[in-house]
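Teaching assistant here, posting this on the class forum so everyone can see the example we discussed in section. The complex has two components, and the goal was to see what a joint structure prediction looks like when all of them are supplied at once.
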Amino acid sequence: MNLRGGNGRKEMTPLPMEEKQPEIMVVGINHVSAPVDLREQLAFSTTQCEAALADLKQSDALREILILSTCNRVEFLLSTSCPDGALNTVIDCLSETKSVDRKTFESAVYIHCGDEAVRHAFRVASGLDSMIVGEPQILGQLKDAYRVAVNSKATGVILNRLLHKAFSTAKRVRSETGIGDRAVSISYAAVELAKKIFGNLNDKTVLLVGAGEMAELAVEHLHRNRASGNLFVANRTFGVGVELAHRFSGTAIRFEEITQTLTSADIIISSTGSPDYIIDHAAVRPAMRKRRNRPLFFIDIAVPRDIDPEINRLENAFVYDIDDLQGVIDENLNSRHNESIKAERIIEEGVLRFRHWHHSLDVVPTIKEIRAKLHVIAEAELARTLQSMQNISPEDEASLHKMIEAIVNKSLHDPTVFLKNPGTHRDKSLYIDMVRKIFNIEE
Amino acid sequence: MSYWLIPVIGLYLSSAACYGGYLFIQKESFHRAGYGLMLAGFAVHTLIVATKILYYGIIPVRNLHETLLFAAWVFAGVFLVLKIHTRLKIMGVFAAPIATLMTAAAFMVPDKSVEIESSLASVWLVIHVMLIFTGMAALTLAAGAGVLYLIQKHNIKGKKHRFFFRRLPSLEMLDSTGYTFVVIGFSALTVGLITGFVYAHMVWGRIWSWDPKEVWSAITWLIYAALLHERLISRWRGGRAAVLAIIGFAAMLFTFLGVNFLLEGHHDEFTRW
């Protein structure tokens, strides 16, 4: 048994130099810093991610790595004890994997360290850093990236904790603010309007004319707001229509059938590239009679417009084009602003709490807390023992106090030495985290 | 006696204020307070009406004061009952001020006792008045829903999304609620008119005497009949139905008060003052 700390004469052997605490770092490009063609060049496939993770793991500078690559961003989330070396390693890896000269993208790269990096990770997870603020896909993409990193054994205590906190923060932002509702703004506005016309969207039939990202988002958003109801898809190229209809479990119709469908559809979303009106006043008038004047809502996302604006003059027919919808959004801006303030506050809370945990991962506070805990236990036991003892002098009592103090200090000496230097290439945070768990002083 | 009306007016007025607050702030508690105060006002109102009935032994429609008092009571009651069945919380914004105004008008008009020639004790007359007033109350609410519908339609068509757009319910809901009110009101009105004919036959020996009130009642009835007919064959929905409900209300208001002041007839005594 090694009793180095307990030889009595010297209270403690000098402790070894403490290794620097690992820092959290984000290196990446996104839709703000880099144009789309550069983002395309730098995007990682899952296989490339796995290869890069395996490669980066070998580096001395990096402790933990996660690679997030979506159409709007390529980011490396790192834990490192040597930020400068880490940055170089990552940039080299990026340049090598994608065979792109580092000069072409270096100016677009942003670097966040410490709290900034944590905040960035939380904002990304919550969709606040997305092109369309509040869009929900990013959370799933981040989860996938995390799974890949975990499978490659590239994450450790810090990133595990950071990612779990990022997921829970994103969940809080989603449930406590309206930011997610207003995600896909045009479609949100369209659904909000539809609700003001129909009240309940449950059994309403939707007709999608033409295909397009925005129109599809609107349909998706409508789908989330109704339990049942039919969907018709009309496209000039029937095959595309069939495919789209299949995706939303709807029915594809031919372009010529649009006029007939006006009698059964309630909400028409149109976004074709046609230079002329697809649906004109003359087609809707008789349809209104046939549909017994039930309201009809046209959402025209196309430029130039697909829907004759004159239709808006018909009783029970409502036409909104992209500018009108933009108007709704602008009027919503104020409340949206409030929601994002709320979201930022939730994130700030998360960052603070994470910082607190991260700092506690240091050796000194951990040892202090363990010592305090042991001290409390020992003092309590001593007090109980003293109660049952009679005829004990104050001097004896003082010696007993001294003795338990020494026991606590000496028992902690070896653990302290070990924690300060668990050996080269070992993740100190892992041991500290474990010790905190063993002594149950986690938070 | 009429000083008893002051607490009623006060309660209706504070209910109206709560509903106004609900319109602006959209807090559920305001709406609930509005409904509660209206209910409290109605309770006191009921006591006053009941006292009158017990004291005179007939329903209190002998002069303008009593007619307004009674009509306001029926109106408040109909609102409170219909509110349970329709989820249109915003209706209180209309109903509470109208109840306040009617009660206040009753308070302003002196309660002068008058001798009535024809007997008011007939059960047919009681049913006649009750049903007509109930129908009028429901049709007033229908007109209110119509006004709200037109405001909301104007907002949506005109792409204005400010104050009222956010606060008013959907067009479909306003439309269907208005329709429900019209159906209830029209049914009550129809049966009320039939009992009126029965009563007229008993008193004057004939069911129709071209009395101005009768004529205007028929006009009002025809307007609502047209509305329902068009609605059933589904040509007039939404905006047009709302406009017709408002026109019908105007005709009804004239039948109720205008005829008595401007024209003459055997319904005269009920609004004498």
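For the discussion questions: Chain B has nine helices and no strands. The longest helix of chain B spans residues 123-157. Think about how each of these relates to the inputs above.
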